[in-house]
Amino acid sequence: DMYEPKPEHKFTFGLWTVGNIGRDPFGEPVRHPLSPVEIVHLLADVGAYGVNFHDNDLIPIDATPADRDRILREFKAALQETGLVVPMATTNLFADPVFKDGAFTSNDPKVRAYALQKTMRAIDLGVECGAKVYVFWGGREGVESDAAKDPQEGLKRYREVINFLCAYVKDQGYDLKFALEPKPNEPRGDIYLATVGHALAFINTLDHPDMVGLNPEVAHETMAGLNFLHGVAQAWDAGKLFHIDLNDQVIGRYDQDFRFGAVNLKAAFFLVRFLENVGYQGSRHFDAHAYRTEDYEGVKTFARGCMRTYLILKEKARRFDGDAEIQALLAEITADDGTMAPFQGGYSRDKADALKAHPFDRVALGRRGLAYERLDQLTNELLLGVR
Ligand code: ASC
Ligand code: MN
Ligand code: MN
Ligand code: MN
């Protein structure tokens, strides 16, 4: 089976993804909770490469030190047994009531200090399990009312904590990079660092910008109404695509975290093609969960579906790039007769003067049809399996 997941594909899932019990704001859980060890075995069963976690997916927030040691021992034994690895870890800074007004950006300095303590401990735990990337999803960092918090103050607090934690990682000698995960809203009315673009600009204001990159999520940029591929491309261009959260989402709906490819197959296709063609080496992490209608058989179908769709789209990308008609169209669209070479590249005064004096046939340039309709239809037909 050419669509079978293999370790080199670097497919990972969070403990919280296949472990999602289907609670929502209107309804109780529909699946019984699985232990971390059971989740590791489920993921091994479906062919995943790795498993990621929030600190409290693994160790309950109120665990005793003895609980912690036992759980960690059992979890590591399951990793040993299955060969799964832990490429990424993160902190749960959103579920407990203490974080109702944010963690790093809470108005309460005690909450901010507690969040910092919790994150240092969670970093230690993640590194102990082998994580090389540490994700920051600030789900509660924001407001419902702008009367409550000055957004400049929120950003200042955020920056101070990320700077502190970068210094902590260096001081500990950890081999660990940070990845900020933007989201525009939900669970807060408005969340700080709402999109990839916001986060990229913020990184440049940090003490150690080299240590900090992005973990863009399909659903989150889509919730903001944005083109996910464009955000990913800009993160890649900036050398900041440290990790990626794959799933799917309908614009304008609640935070759905659907199976990869469940909504917008064409967008998923161009995303996979991008990741494969630029040579992205990081995890293909699925931050998604099965529909609330599913039992654990359905959860396995969901997880297998995420990986299988990725691999099918990867094969489609190979065909797109090898399709003579599509490639001929692309060559035609980007054709260059070389006459503009004197005006390209960096600035010189001579070049500027020559370009200012050059006559263009504006009307002829504007009359040219670009055949994007044909290109897009060919793309659809390739995806629909008739070419
Ligand atoms: C994460 C992450 C998210 C959130 C969410 C928690 O670590 O990437 O999008 O937490 O999945 O439910
Ligand atoms: Mn999400
Ligand atoms: Mn995510
Ligand atoms: Mn999520």
UniProtKB/TrEMBL annotation:
NCBIfam families, A to Z: xylA_Arthro
Keywords: Carbohydrate metabolism, Cytoplasm, Isomerase, Magnesium, Metal-binding, Xylose metabolism
A Pfam family this chain is assigned to: AP_endonuc_2
Coarse class of the protein's main subcellular location: cytoplasm
Protein residues bound to Mg(2+) 1: 181, 217, 245, 287
High-level lineage: Bacteria, Bacillati, Chloroflexota, Chloroflexia, Chloroflexales
Positions of transmembrane segments: none
Protein's name in the database: Xylose isomerase
